[in-house]
Design goal:
about 400 residues, TIM Barrel, GMP Synthetase, Chain A, domain 3, 7-stranded parallel β-sheet, 3-stranded mixed β-sheet, 14 strands, binds iron/sulfur cluster
């Protein structure tokens, strides 16, 4: 695929969309949207996290939101309206619109389909429709067929991830969340409405999830899941205490800890062997396995992974076949895009299949350099090296 005009024009499209939405907002809304963290956040590897809600009453034992300063009392709708969210995103220097642009991820600090916030989440989907970005949400909620239909009617690619990490111990560690059987119904309803729901096997809890891979995959596949996103567990002192209190044997978790001293800081535990095992079993059940959420979003949107997972040893060779979707580019294309961002020319550009090297004499701050690299990586889907 050559570099299409549409891809080259993403930077201009962003400016035009921002001006257009700005005309529809009053001064107060503009100020509020610009000051909001959605206008500043750096995307995570899975994409830019969107909060349609704050807080979550599910109080899962392994949840880290409390350690991030959020609470387990209730899910409160986020304070921005749809248009304000769009203006906020278009003000974020990392964000680029369109299907080729920034991946958006709903559900990192709350459940976007908790009954208190469904309408806010749907309002956000509707508002970002014209931006066109690939969206993904993770949930443990029951989504009715009616709401599944509303999601499927949105004119953007939406990738649903339904969390199930245990069938047998859910009542212990996810006591307040909807039952796993309700979540399987969610998968059914989404599948019936032509979406591609995926099982979210995150976090794998050693000693629990790995004993149930087979059954979880069997049930998810039977309900209509297309794939599975497999992910690790992050723990803090508080999380380990909560798991212990729920009656969970924490020994298999502690054995895999790199650092023995736990604090309120989140640390990953080693699970690479369990991931490999889960990938193999998932394949046997006819589920497409993904090592990371961004890949599932890429597969659903039919675009190369924004995190370049195929260049980072994260690729599970899914049917999306990212290398086949990489645009063929010339130095002139890169120069044009560089100029549209920096308003000046680069001194030297070397283009290869997986990397772009740029030499420039402009003096910019570390943060500006980070933003430039992120934008170029998104548009060109290659590693970016910049020498000053
Ligand atoms: S549903 Fe998600 S956000 Fe809510 S408590 Fe459980 S892990 Fe945390
Ligand atoms: S081809 Fe590989 S890198 Fe691309 S989406 Fe699939 S798993 Fe991810």
């Amino acid at each position: 695929m050559g570099l299409t005009l549409k891809i080259k024009e993403i930077v201009f499209k962003k400016i035009m969309l921002r001006e257009h939405i700005k005309e529809k907002l009053d001064v107060q809304s503009i100020r509020k949207a610009k000051a909001d963290p959605h206008a500043k956040r750096r995307p995570r590897p899975c994409g830019l996290t969107i909060h349609s809600a704050i807080g979550c009453p599910n109080k899962c034992s392994y949840c880290y939101i409390q350690d991030m300063g959020f609470d387990f009392t209730e899910a409160k709708p986020y304070g921005l309206n749809g248009r304000e969210l769009v203006y906020s995103l278009l003000s974020n220097p990392y964000f680029l619109p369109s299907r080729w642009g920034t991946f958006l991820a709903f559900g990192s600090i709350s459940d976007p389909f908790n009954r208190n916030v469904i309408s806010k989440t749907l309002e956000y989907f509707k508002a970002i429709e014209h931006l066109g970005n690939p969206c993904q949400f993770s949930t443990k909620a029951y989504i009715s067929s009616e709401n599944a239909k509303k999601i499927s009617k949105m004119k953007i690619p939406i990738n649903p991830l339904i969390t199930i990490v245990t069938l047998k111990k859910a009542a212990q560690i996810e006591a307040k969340a909807p039952t796993v059987w309700k979540r399987l119904e969610t998968i059914k309803n989404l599948s019936k409405n032509k979406l591609k729901p995926m099982l979210f096997l995150r976090p794998i809890i050693p000693g629990i999830t790995d004993n149930e891979f087979d059954e979880i995959f069997k049930e998810a596949k039977r309900a209509g899941a297309v794939g599975v996103v497999i992910g690790g567990l992050r723990v803090t002192k508080r999380i380990i205490e909560r798991l212990k209190k729920s009656g969970i044997n924490i020994k298999p978790i502690l054995q895999r800890l790199k650092k023995k001293q736990l604090t309120e800081k989140q640390v990953y535990i080693k699970i690479s062997d369990l991931k490999v095992e889960a990938i193999e079993i998932a394949k046997k059940h006819g589920l497409i396995p993904f090592n990371s959420a961004c890949c599932a979003n890429a597969y659903n949107a039919n675009v190369p992974c924004i995190n370049l997972c195929w260049l980072k040893g994260q690729c599970t060779n899914c049917p999306n076949n990212c290398p086949s979707k990489i645009p063929q580019i010339e130095k002139e294309d890169v120069q044009e895009i560089f100029r549209s961002i920096m308003k000046t020319k680069a001194d030297e550009i070397i283009v290869s299949e997986s990397k772009i090297q740029i030499k420039m004499k402009i003096n910019i701050k570390k943060k500006e350099l980070e933003i430039l690299k992120y934008n170029l990586q998104t548009i060109l889907r290659r590693k970016i090296e910049i020498q000053k």
